[in-house]
Write a structure and sequence with these properties.
With about 450 residues, this protein is α/β, with parallel strands linked by helices. It has three domains: about 80 residues, no CATH class; about 230 residues, Aldolase class I (TIM Barrel, Alpha-Beta Barrel); about 55 residues, no CATH class. The strands form two sheets. Strands 1-2-3-4-5-6-7-8-9 form a nine-stranded mixed sheet. It has a three-stranded antiparallel sheet with strand order 10-11-12, with no helix packed on it. Helix 8 links the parallel strand 3 and strand 4. Helix 12 crosses helix 13. The chain is globular, with a radius of gyration of 25 Å. The termini are far apart.
Length: about 450
């Protein structure tokens, strides 16, 4: 297959800007567009876009000159345009819409730190971005200078991480960490040291921010991983390719987190080209998110079935390392749930029936002499997961059931404590608290 060069674009209005300025990330940030008049000088706006841009209380708009140059000015359905220029559909409420659909603030032990999973935390270090996605999950705080986290809140985040030994992975996000002043980002990384992930869209909105100096600073803090955010092949340019090359040469593995968006990338062929182009610039497709139930994003939502269809068209049809996971971030704060087509058709006590991407159906014969008690033994110290072992805990025999909140109280029916109610009766032998025998301590 012939490889085409990735494009480099500049809108007509910027053609006389010297390269030295154009390629300066500070110049790009200081010349962002945010009003109907400014954006209208680069691309003709629709009436829907003008109404949205002039509406009060609109989620912040800022677009770098570089990124708006990637928009086809003659295409009102351009996929990049839809991601950063609002329409009046953004102001239409929809069923199940929430301000904080992932309940991040509920799971925040200190301001700006989300501890949802046993061994990792999300650390929000800024509320600012290079440009603002119209489907932003954190639009409740992102883009609002008054919501920026204070020095004292930053110290609270670090103190919580220090006193919570099971944390082994810190994801820096916001806002976008790479818009921070270099000295501030350097300080954050030096204070953490064990950080492993940064989530950023700066290389996409502002690839000139990825300078040699930034890469030299970042590579001091390995192990460091970075996820970028590319939704369409149109966003992969010569400049992004060069930025990713610098990051990977600095020893930083790159992944990509995309969001499934109606009218933007809800097409199997678009997704296939996206993952192929990402692999070309040494970025591993990681997640494809279902659009969250966040305010203002209703017009971007697709049925989950569309995501399943896309995964059906990727798995087996292209290289496994080029296939991302399709994820629903559980509304209400349940975390990431992977969703995929069903390849397991049936099974018995000795045989599994499976199908492949072509519809080929086969069977796998199970071993009849496998003994679970002879499985490999782990000799280290198990990582603590207080209250979060979930279904895995059921499989490991730590408990026999998971009860909904208030289950026992509801079924007690406000009854009395009588002689037949003995807790030992429903302690399963050999599982959980019944491991010592019949329930006796």
């Amino acid at each position: 297959m012939a490889k085409y060069p990735f494009p480099s674009k500049r809108a007509a209005i910027y053609r006389d800007i010297p390269d030295e300025q154009w390629n300066n990330w500070r110049w790009q940030l200081s010349h962002r567009l945010n009003t109907a008049d400014e954006i209208g000088q680069v691309i003709p706006l629709t009436e829907s876009e003008r109404r949205a841009l002039n509406a009060p209380n609109l989620f912040r708009v800022d677009i770098t000159p570089y990124f708006i140059s990637l928009v086809d000015p003659d295409d009102p359905d351009d996929p990049i345009r839809k991601q950063v220029i609002p329409t009046d559909a953004e102001m239409v409420p929809f069923t199940a819409m929430m301000e904080d659909s992932l309940a991040e603030d509920r799971h925040s032990p200190v301001p700006g730190l989300v501890h949802r999973y046993p061994d990792r935390v999300l650390m929000l270090v800024t509320t600012q971005c290079a440009s603002y996605c119209r489907y932003c999950t954190r639009s409740r705080i992102v883009g609002d200078p008054s919501a920026t986290f204070s020095r004292s809140e930053f110290e609270m985040q670090l103190e919580y991480i220090r006193r919570t030994p099971q944390i082994r992975d810190v994801l820096l996000s916001g806002g976008d960490p790479l818009v921070l002043a270099p000295k501030i980002l350097d300080e954050i990384l030096s204070r953490l040291r064990e950080i492993e992930h940064i989530g950023t869209r700066v290389p996409v909105f502002l690839p000139m921010r990825v300078t040699d100096e930034l890469c030299e600073m970042l590579q001091k803090y390995h192990p460091l991983w970075m996820n970028i955010h590319v939704n369409t092949p149109n966003e992969i340019t010569k400049e992004l390719e060069e930025a990713c090359d610098k990051l990977t040469r600095a020893g930083i593995p790159l992944g990509n987190q995309a969001v499934l968006l109606a009218g933007v990338n809800d097409n199997v062929e678009v997704q296939r080209q996206l993952v192929h182009d990402l692999v070309r610039i040494r970025v591993r497709p990681y997640y494809l998110y279902q659009c969250d139930l966040v305010e203002g994003a209703g017009h971007f939502r697709t049925p989950v079935g569309k995501g399943i269809e896309i995964m059906e068209g990727l798995r087996g049809h292209t290289s496994g390392y080029a296939v991302h996971q399709y994820i629903i971030d559980a509304p209400g704060g349940g975390g990431k749930i992977p969703v995929m087509p069903n390849y397991l058709l049936s099974y018995s006590d000795h045989k599994v029936v499976l199908r492949n991407y072509e519809g080929y159906i086969t069977t796998y014969e199970e071993p009849v002499d496998y003994l679970p008690e002879r499985a490999a033994k782990f000799k280290g110290e198990k990582r603590p997961e207080p209250g979060q072992t979930g279904v895995h805990g059921l499989l490991q025999g730590e408990q026999m059931f998971i009860k909904p909140e208030g289950f026992d109280e509801i079924h007690d029916r406000h009854g009395i404590q009588h002689r037949l109610k003995d807790e030992k009766k429903w302690q399963p032998l050999g599982i959980g608290s019944g491991l010592k025998g019949n329930g006796d301590e």
